[in-house]
Design goal:
The chain is an alpha+beta fold and 67 residues long. The chain has a domain at 12-54. It has two helices and two strands; from the N terminus they run H-E-E-H. The chain has helices at residues 12-16, 40-56; strands at 23-28, 31-36. Strands 1-2 form a two-stranded antiparallel sheet. A hairpin with a 2-residue loop joins strand 1 (23-28) and strand 2 (31-36). It is flat, with a radius of gyration of 17 Å.
Length: 67
Amino acid sequence: MAMALPRGPLTVDDLDAFPDDGHRYELMDGTLLVTPSPGAPHQLALGRLHPDLGVTVDPAQLCRPAC
């Protein structure tokens, strides 16, 4: 289904109006970026990496004070 985009930079309210259709909708400086959701190979690789990262990376180092 086609959807008309508002004129000018998009806002978070505009983003919230997009359907939950399996695509990833993101805004960058008011510009809409649309990508497909990760597929099975991506999720499999992530599942294999996650345990290793959990024991290797110090969580305190992931987020600086600005977070």
